[in-house]
Amino acid sequence: MLNQIKGLHHVTSMAANARQNNAFFTKVLGLRRVKQTVNFDAPDVYHLYYGDEAGTPGTVMTYFPFPNIGPGRAGTGEVGTTVFSVPQGSLGYWADRLTKNSVDGLQRDESFGQKRLHFAGPDGDGFSLVEVANDSRTPWTSNGVDGDHAIRGFHSVALRLRDEGATSELLKFMGYETVDKSDGVTRLAVPGGNDASVIDLETMPNIARGLQGAGSVHHVAFAVENREKQLEVRKALMDTGYQVTPVIDRDYFWAIYFRTPGGVLFEIATNEPGFDRDEERAHLGESLMLPQQHKHLRPILAEHLPKLED
C-alpha cells in the first residue's frame, strides 16, 4: 500500500463559456482566480484555476472552457459531485447567496452526519457544500464572502460507478481506507492526509455511462509532496499493471495520468513548484501566463481569447 498520496490536489472540469465560468467561481463562490493560462494541447482555449490565496493543493478547481462544446451527460464512470468544505452553521448563508445569484439545483440534506447543500454550476456541474468542523485552512475572502462563511477548499469528490469493487481496491492501494458506508455510498479517506482527503464511491449498476461535455469533470488529481514521491507512485502503479503516462511538466506541478477500472481519469500531481513560480502571490491570476511552447502565440491569443472581465 502506498503512503505518498495525501488527498486531493485539484479537480479539472470543462465549461462552455470562460467569462461565465470566471464570474461564477470568483463572484458567486468567492474563490480566487489563481492562474489564467491555456490548455497545453489546445492553446486557443483557456485553462483557468480557482482556489485559496496561493492555490494550495486541495483547494483548486480548474476549467477548460471550450466555446463550442456541447453539454455533458451525467452517468457512471465519472466524478458526479465535487464537494467543498465550509464552516459549521454557514449553509443558511450559502443558500441565501446562491438563491440571490439564481443558482439552480439547491437542495439540502445530510450524509455521514454532515449537513450538505447541493447546487449546480453554470453548465449543470454537480457541486455540494458540506459543513466541516475544525477545518483550519485559511480561506480567500472576496466579493462579500467573509471568513466565517468562505469556502476552505475541497472536502471530497463522489465517483459514480457501475461497480465499486476494482476502484475501491485501487484507492486502498493508493493509501485510502474505508471509514464508513451509508445509503449505498462507501466513504474512503487517507489517514493523516490533507483536509481534502475523502472519496465517496456511489454504486449505480443500472445507470448508463456518462458522456463528457460542458459540466463534466475531466479528471481528478491527487497530491504528492514532490517529484521523488511521484516517481515512487508511478512505479508502484505500473508494477501493479496500470498504464501510466510519463511525467509531464504542467508548469505549476508535475503530473502523471492513468485510467481507473471504473473509467475515471486519475492524475497524481506534485505540490511543487506552485502557482507563484511565475507571478507574485499578490498578483496571481491577473495576467495571461503562457507555457514556454506557446509564448510565441501571445499576440494571436490576446486577440482570440475572450475577456474574462470588463
UniProtKB/TrEMBL annotation:
Listed name of the protein: VOC family protein
Residues in VOC domain copies: 7-132, 153-271
Pfam families in the cross-refs: Glyoxalase (PF00903)
PROSITE patterns reported for this sequence: VOC
Family matches, as InterPro entries: Extradiol_RC_dioxygenase (IPR052537), Glyas_Bleomycin-R_OHBP_Dase (IPR029068), Glyas_Fos-R_dOase_dom (IPR004360), VOC_core (IPR037523)
Transmembrane segments: none
